[in-house]
Amino acid sequence: MDTTQLIFMALGLPLNVGLASLGSAYAVSQSAIAVFSVGVMKPNVIIKGIIAVVMGTMLGLYSLVVGIFAGRAAMGLLKDGKEVSPLGGYLLFASCSMNGVANLAAGYGIGICATAGIRGIAQQEKLFFTYILSLLLLEALGLYGLILSLLSIPR
User: Fold this and answer.
1) Is pLDDT at 106 greater than 70 in this prediction?
2) Which of 49, 60, 51 is nearest to 107 (CA)?
3) Domains in the chain and their CATH numbers?
4) What is the largest CA-CA distance in the chain?
5) Which residues have CB under 8 Å from 100's CB, separation 6+?
6) Degrees, nearest 5: CA angle 53-109-150
7) For residues 76 and 19, what is the distance between their CA atoms, to the nearest angstrom?
8) What are the Cα distances from residue 46, in Å, to 36, 54, 114?
């Protein structure tokens, strides 16, 4: 029995959680730093800035959802002592890494957007709509990764 597909299947789950957590941590840390630094001088910006922190946290939850479904799929592929097909192992790896990379990119974008956006809102309140729209579009990247990886997890 070739164990290559088992190795890829086992590597997919930590890759999903690890990359998505890196993106989430970057988004939350950069957003929080911007909120804290601007909130000292302009306390009314704190509530508006917390939105980016919450959106960054959602990226970590996306990896949790994919991890649960992928773990159950891996257990389903391994049950009854049957041999895992190469396609099943590689497809599980691809679906997990797809979610991880998408959420890493979304977290990086949210962190950069939040840093500039919160400082911009402190100077000009009119930028709030543009800030929220940018955050929503960046969060959509993570959501696309979640949806596509859930659809590609082998049954």
Assistant:
1) yes
2) 60
3) 4-152 (1.20.120.610)
4) 64
5) 15, 16, 17, 18, 19, 20, 63, 145
6) 85
7) 24
8) 8, 13, 12
**What is the identity of the amino acid at 61?**
L
d(C-alpha 153, C-alpha 4), whole Å: 18
Confidence at residue 9, expressed as pLDDT on a 0 to 100 scale: 86
Answer for the pair 97, 64: CB distance below 8 angstroms, yes or no: no
Single-letter amino acid code for the residue at 137: L
Q: What does the DSSP assignment read for 125-149?
A: GGGHHHHHHHHHHHHHHHHHHHHHH
Q: How confident is the model at residue 1 (pLDDT cuts 50, 70, 90)?
A: low
Q: What is the mean pLDDT of residues 73-97?
A: 82
Kindly state the tokens that stand for 94. Answer: 């691809």
The mean pLDDT of the chain is 91
